[in-house]
Structures are given as structure tokens and as C-alpha cells.
Amino acid sequence: MSFAEKKALSLTCHALIPGIDPPYGYQPSLAAGIVFCVLFGLSMLVHTVQALWKRNWWCFTFVVGCITEVLGWAARTWSSQCPYNGNAFLMQISTLIIAPTFFTAGVYVLLGRFIQIFGRNSSVLSPAMYLWIFCTCDVVSLVVQAIGGGIASSESNQNTSTKPGTDIMVAGIIFQLASITIFVACAADFFRRVLRHHRLSSMSGTVVPLMAAMAFSITCIYIRSIYRTIELLQGWSGYLITHERFFIALDGAMMAPAVAIFNFIHPGWFIPSQKTVSVDVGQEMSSKSSEQPVFNDA
């Protein structure tokens, strides 16, 4: 098939033609597209109600992330019927790369709330620094990936090599993985300090489930980031990117529980109030008045 014929095919909705691979390297699954649209759609609705009910406005980062995921999986559902359509392909690439950034932003804020609860010495960075540093890194990464994607798309439309644009995209996603790795290390250090000084025993019982939910969400996001980095390193014709089962298992099936966990263990209900924290800390101080202050050697 000539380049002109492929170009014309990308502008229409055409069923799969035997022997001619779609941009994905396969025909996306209709069932997977519908399932993830429903999962992220339900999570979005519940998060919206929860955020409004508890007035946790920062939790709308989860709502926006879910909306973006729905758009991406809707595009893949579209592609299941129109596998060659270029607009559907580009729509799912852009949205599903961006969506996790909103989830990580919510996790950054949540970790900052925990630092406020346990004290500044429970972390190497202040709550504000987490948000500014890592959100900035995410934005820079997305801009670099967008530039690379734009160049690759332009080169593809002109039937020239997409390698320069792809290399820029890879640089952006490697930078993002490095940023998340540093954040994971900081979060692990926070957990180490809290556990080392036995602070959990002095806090409300709702703190432990929420901390566990945050750790679970971070793990899912990190696994997805590793997968997407390796996927792009292999190129557009690599094994991972041309086999949908990996995308379903290591992207969709990672992001859905990463955000849905906060529907069941929502910060609005599980973060202790300032009054509760003050009472808990006061009780600890009165019972351990002869001990050294916590975190003094972290």
C-alpha cells in the first residue's frame, strides 16, 4: 500500500484489512475499551461527589485524571471499530500519557498532608516543595513528550523517519521516570522515619489505611512508568507497544486501582482533623514526657 493510500485510510473509518497493520500494530480490544471507560467513569463520578461533600478541592486532581483516562480509552474504543483512524490514535496517545500526571499531583498533595500531621522532620522536603518540584518535573516531561510527539507525527505525515521525534519523546519519559523514582525514594524515606519512631501508634486509626492506600497508588503509578519507558525505548514497532495485553495489564490495570483506591479510602474521611491530631500528639507527649523529641536523628 502506498503512502497516499495509507494517508487516506487514516482519515476514514475502515474495518481491519488483513495484511495491513493499524498504527497500533493490532486492532484495539472493544471490550477493554468499554471496561476501562466504565471503571474510570465510575471513579470520576464518585471522586466528584466525595470532593464536593468533604470540600477537598485538591482531590479534583483525581477527577481530572479520570476524565482524561476516559477520553483515552474512549479513543481506543473508537479505534477498535476504526483501527486506521489517525485522530483516534493520536487522541489516545496524548490523553493516556497525560492522565497519570493528575494522579501523581494528588499523591504529592496527600504526602504533604501527612508531613503536616507527623511534623516537618518526618520528611527531607517541605509539603510545598514536593508539589512545586515534582509537578514542575511532570510538566517539563509532558512538554518534552508533546514536542517529540508533534515532530514524530509531522515526520510520519511526510513519510520520513520518525526517529528524531521519538528520541525526544523517550527523553521526556525517561526524565519523568527519574522524577518519579526520586519521589518514590523520598516517600520511602518518609515511611521509614515514621515507622522508625513509632509515630503511627499515637495517631488516629484512619491514618494507617490512608498511608497504605498512598503506598499502593504510588507503586501502581511507578510500575506503569517503568513499563511506558521500556515500551518507548523499544520504538513504535517494538514488542511491548505492538501487543495490547501489556498495555492493558501495565497501563490500564495499574491506573484504575491507583485512583480507585482513594474512592474506598478517601482522604476527606481518613485524614485526621487538626483537633484529632492535637489530641493524639498531646496524649503521646504526656505519656512520653521523659523521652527525646521524635525525628531528632532522622
Secondary structure elements and their pairing?
Layout lengths: L2 H8 L19 H25 L5 H22 L4 H33 L8 H31 L5 H34 L10 H27 L10 H21 L2 H4 L3 H14 L11
Helix pairs in contact: 2-3, 2-8, 3-4, 4-5, 4-7, 5-6, 6-7, 7-8
Keywords:
single chain; 298 residues; mainly alpha; elongated; disordered C terminus
Notes on the protein architecture:
The structure is a single chain. 73% of the residues lie in helices and 0% in strands. It is built from ten helices and no strands. The longest helix has 34 residues, at 163-196. The model is unreliable at 278-298 (pLDDT under 50).
In short:
By secondary structure, the protein is mainly alpha-helical. The protein has helices at residues 3-10, 30-54, 60-81, 86-118, 127-157, 163-196, 207-233, 244-264, 267-270, 274-287.
The helix content is: over 70%
Distance from N terminus to C terminus (CA atoms, Å) equals 64 Å
Q: What general form does the structure show?
A: elongated
Number of strands: 0
Q: Strand portion, in percent?
A: under 5%
Elements, N to C (H/E):
HHHHHHHHHH
Rg (C-alpha, Å): 22 Å
Given as residue ranges, the uncertain stretches (5+ residues, pLDDT < 50) are 278-298
Class by SSE composition:
mainly alpha
Arithmetic mean of pLDDT: 86
Structure annotation, total helices: 10
Largest sheet: none
Keywords: Membrane, Transmembrane, Transmembrane helix
Main location: membrane
Organism: Byssochlamys spectabilis
Subcellular location: Membrane
